[in-house]
Model the fold of this input.
Amino acid sequence: MSKIIDTFIAPPCHDKIETLYQDDHLVLINKPTGLLSLSGKNPQNLDSVHHRLVKVFPDCTLVHRLDFGTSGLMVIARNKTINAALCQQFSQRTVTKVYRALLCGHLANNEGMIDAAISKDPALFPLMSICATHGKPARSSYRVIERFYHELDEGTLLPLTRVELTPETGRTHQLRIHCQQLGHPILGCDLYGGLLLPGTEQAPRLMLHASELHFVHPVSKEWIRTHNASPF
Done:
């Protein structure tokens, strides 16, 4: 197997993590775009959600991750027992995750399902690929919120579609590669075609935000339903 070499160096992230809720068991945060979820092996990539939070919550661990460019809701376990309980909910797919995104172009259908297996290929790192033979099952649903045109500096109109995305599975880069498969990559996505159309290179960030997270509190057994408005 090819050895994977990660050459990515994250630029400094000056935005703060917003704590939305905390108790003795878990913390709910709003992750800023441009911040790693977990520190990388390269010492230049030390800054991350975990690196920052462990200073405040010494035993905290990540239950799930968001991509570097993705902003929004994350739940952090404050100890190993809570982490195991939450990880079980994620693996059993009883956690609901909803995202907001801006897609390049205007989608033809108002809603739909993308069912395309995703495979990891070390030769393509960090890209994932669609592969029916070797990929792991991956399903995402989408719903159009609005279609509009964004006027660029020179007066050109860039067609965009605001969507709600709901992944049924949790594969790496799932929503980004599924939207590319749909023919409408996420605006600002450097890996899967979101910077290819004229004008898209002006995108300030990856236009993907984790806006809702629903799960059962491991201790109180109450449903936690969290909403966080998209910044775009």
